[in-house]
Amino acid sequence: MTDATRASDAIRFENLTLGYDRHPAVHHLDGALASGSLTAVVGPNGAGKSTLLKGIVGALPPLSGHIRLSLGRPRGAKARIAYLPQAADIDRSFPITVYDLVCVGLWSRAGLFGSIGRKDRVQIEEALAAVGLTGFEKRTIGTLSGGQMQRALFARLLLQDADIILLDEPFTAIDARTTADLLALVRRWHDEGRTVVAVLHDMEMVRQAFPRTLLLAREPVAWGETDEVLTAENLLRARRLVEAFDTHAPVCARDAA
């Protein structure tokens, strides 16, 4: 790989193995996500898709190999990452308003105890308007529908102004209109040159809206242009690999040596 190619990579995986309690969930992943790319991560249940996002965001350290973030930034500078976990991982009972939830998107710039100034308030209002939640500011998140909650979380992502945006099943169990509105925001981020990675199950959506796809089955099955990845042969191979995988398998001998 040339220096010029490395500089254009947002995320690079080098013989990456991720797992839990020394059991691999994703193993021997090599490749790169180009800066500004829009990529879907697909695969059967248990394929390691969410695990991969947790590895990128730093919530799960590699068992072996490396994840490198670049974006062509000066040496030592860190790329900003925004991460949206699955809806099931979010505590909706926490007594917080929509406005306060969205404000969390400013923490990376203002700090946990930083004050919210006039410019910040304008940005919060614009983010809420962008997702169609103007007038919802004082409502607690426990009163929101699934679609409204996802809109609020996307507003928080807007405020994070991140270089890399990771979305874990962002369109699951929400209505068609909300899906269309939020997918438009994903396209906007892509047009702005941000790197977007989304775990998805809707193959038709992937084919229509995501130019590149990584098909996982704990190991990479195919990675590249979406039409070339989502073939019947590749999808069948992915399903069979996951079904045959031993969930109690130790780290690969190549890693343990």
From TrEMBL:
Domain ABC transporter: from-to ranges: 11-242
Domain of life: Bacteria
GO biological process: zinc ion transport
Matching SUPFAM superfamilies: P-loop containing nucleoside triphosphate hydrolases
Pfam families (UniProt xref): ABC_tran
Similarity field: Belongs to the ABC transporter superfamily.
A GO molecular-function descriptor: ATP binding
PANTHER family found in the cross-reference section: IRON TRANSPORT SYSTEM ATP-BINDING PROTEIN HI_0361-RELATED, METAL TRANSPORT SYSTEM ATP-BINDING PROTEIN TM_0124-RELATED
The entry's keywords: ATP-binding, Ion transport, Nucleotide-binding, Transport, Zinc, Zinc transport
Coiled-coil stretches noted in the UniProt entry, renumbered to this chain: none
Signal peptide: none
Protein name: ABC transporter
